[in-house]
Amino acid sequence: MTADAPLAGVRVGVTGARKGPELCAALERRGATAMHGPTIEPDQPAPDEELLPQLKDLVTSRPDWFIANTGTGVRLLAEVADRHGLGEDLRTLLGGDDVRVVARGAKAVGGLRGIDVRAEHVADAETDASLAAWLAEHVAAGEHLAVQYSARTRRDYEQLRDEQGLTLHVLRPYRSGVPHDDGPARRLIEATIAGDLDVVVVTSAIAVDNLLVIARRHGLDQGLVTAFADAVEAAAIGQVTAEACRTHGIEPGIIPDRHRTGALLATLEAWAN
């Protein structure tokens, strides 16, 4: 390995969909061999007729809290609202003094900033669990929480609702499914089991879940988990993704401190050297 090629000789599998090719290119510029096997069908926005009633309820119910989980989700909410004449109502609601707005992480903060809304609190660990724990110390019984869910629904907010006696309004702006063509992901799984990869990068919790769904579909799930335990390292971007790995019996050895491509590359370089 050299300064110009800090990942020379490292074989990396990438499960991300939308930004997967970009990450593969960045890895190869650093000398790695990259294999792309997306486990996620690119995010599909929920149909307007499905999301619009949720938005109307949000605007009319005027919740005490609004929880932003993802930047993409916030953007999709705003786009649907704009298409149906609710954009100004949504921005006025979330930008006013009556609703307290909080965010799970930096991307959600960016989504809010795009509609001129400021988050008063951002979860320290950028996870649903840490945000729900903070809310537990700040909400009051009977308050109404509106939650913009990510594609992978978490139970933390339902538990908070039950423990604190809250009303929960859920908005589901998009969903991520298993790719219609799972061939590339299956080949990545087979390469992992064969020992042809040194590390597999998973960029979201749903990517981990789908990786195991695809492996199970082809009878490869036990071999995959064993490969991660024996020889192949899992690189998980963020604590939410790391937690998802652990639920499937995979302990990630590489966890960047920030959910950013640059942080991932730096962490991979440190691990390789």
Could you walk me through the main structural features you see in this protein, from its secondary elements to its overall organization?
With 273 residues, the chain is of the alpha/beta class. The protein has two domains: 127 residues, Rossmann fold (3-Layer(aba) Sandwich), CATH 3.40.50.10090; 132 residues, Rossmann fold (3-Layer(aba) Sandwich). It is built from twelve helices and eleven strands. Helix content is 47%, strand content 15%. The mean pLDDT is 92. The strands form three sheets. The chain has a five-stranded parallel sheet, with helices on both faces. Strands 2-1-10-11 form a four-stranded parallel sheet, sandwiched between helices. The protein has a two-stranded antiparallel ribbon with strand order 3-9.
Summarize the structure.
The chain has 273 residues and is α/β, with parallel strands linked by helices. It has 12 helices and 11 strands. The protein has 2 domains: 11-42 and 178-272, 3-Layer(aba) Sandwich (Rossmann fold); 44-175, 3-Layer(aba) Sandwich (Rossmann fold).
Write the layout of secondary structure elements.
Layout: E1 11-14, H1 20-29, E2 33-36, E3 44-45, H2 48-61, E4 65-68, H3 71-83, H4 87-95, E5 100-103, H5 106-113, E6 121-122, H6 128-136, E7 144-148, H7 156-164, E8 167-171, E9 174-175, H8 183-194, E10 199-202, H9 205-217, H10 221-230, E11 233-236, H11 239-247, H12 261-272
Parallel strand pairs: 1-2, 1-10, 4-5, 4-7, 5-6, 7-8, 10-11
Antiparallel strand pairs: 3-9
